[in-house]
Each structure stands twice: as structure tokens, then as C-alpha cells.
Amino acid sequence: MSDAHNLKLDQSPGGNIEKDPSDWVSGDDAMTGAQTSYLKTLSEELDAPETFDDNLTKAEASRRIDELKGRQSNPS
Questions:
Q1: Is residue 1 included in any domain, yes or no?
Q2: Overall pTM > 0.70
Q3: Each residue of 56-75: b (16+ CB within 10 Å) or e?
Q4: How big is the chain by its Cα radius of gyration, in Å?
Q5: What CA–CA distance (Å, rounded) separates 24 from 60?
Q6: Residue 31 CB: number of other CB atoms within 10 A?
Q7: Domain enclosing residue 32, as ranges
Q8: Is 45 within 8 Å of 73 (Cβ atoms)?
Q9: CB under 8 Å to 43, separation ≥6 — which residues?
């Protein structure tokens, strides 16, 4: 049996698990299909169609999704 540490089982993972989208190697790639779908859903749920943009990068979409999720939990 190996004594190697399994990061997937770690209850308090290291600081590099969640990176800032601006640091992503593929952040400039087009957003994924999942991001597109989720962003579209969030913009419709919040009645904010102007927040959806089909031409966002992965990093931009991630930041926009985080912003919209924040609006969901803090409606004005």
C-alpha cells in the first residue's frame, strides 16, 4: 500500500484548487456549452437578458456566472 497523500480525499484542500479565472491557461477560449447553458438560465431566472452574451470567454463567463449567482442570493 502506498503512503502517497490523496488530494481528492483531503477535507481542506490546498490553495491552488480554485484559481482566479484570469489565471486560467484556457481562460481565453470560448465558454463551454455548460457555461453557456447555465448563464442563459441564470439570466432568464433573474429577468436580466442583457447579462447573457454568447461571445464570452471561459474566464468572462465564469465571472459573470459568479456575479449572477450573487444576485440570486441577494435580490435587490
A1: no
A2: no
A3: bbbbbbbbbbeebeeeeeee
A4: 16
A5: 11
A6: 22
A7: 24-73
A8: no
A9: 49, 50, 51, 52, 68
